[in-house]
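Morning F.,

Quick status update on the modeling queue. The single chain you submitted on Monday has been processed. Sequence for confirmation:
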Amino acid sequence: MPILACLCSAPPPPPLRGPAQSASRQPPCSVGAPRPQLVSFAEMAVGCVVIFATCLTTAAYVLSNLNQFRKR
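Structure tokens below.
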């Protein structure tokens, strides 16, 4: 019997159940794309404080030394 006939006459595999079934319905991801990670509240708070302090410190330095900058 030819190999192709043997493969075609084989019964189909049983349907998937459980988590494997829900995972198989998701669209495939591109090969190099990383999965997005959730940011915790602490990380978000630290990031906001750092950005705010950086902008505020720079502006405060310029405003406090404005007379010196005008003299130059």
